[in-house]
Amino acid sequence: MLTKEQIKKYIESGYSECPYCREEDIQGSMVEIDGRSAFQEMSCLNCHKNWNDIYTLVNIEEAGE
Q: What is the DSSP letter of 64?
């Protein structure tokens, strides 16, 4: 189970390294949207752990016409 400290370090790293082993060899599946939630299953090619990145809407911008 991920600790709060591991989660914090993962977010602070810019989601660029595994929260378990800290290696940068990670990959993500397609982002899935379910109602008001969005998430992406992530995996580490080094330690083979999996986790979900959970996304929230923080802003919107006008689309080009």
A: P
- Per the CB < 8 A criterion, the answer to whether 24 and 16 are in contact is yes
Indicate the DSSP class of residue 11. Answer: H
Per-residue pLDDT tens digits of the chain, which is 65 residues long: 999 999 999 999 899 999 999 999 999 999 999 888 999 999 999 999 999 999 988 899 999 87
Strand (E) or helix (H) holding 34? strand 32-34
Nearest to 15 by CA among 31, 5, 26: 26
| Whole-angstrom distance, CA of residue 32 vs CA of residue 12 | 23
CA angle, residues 60, 28, 6, in degrees to nearest 5: 90
Query: What was the pLDDT predicted at 58?
Result: 87
Q: Domain ranges for the chain, please list them.
A: 4-55
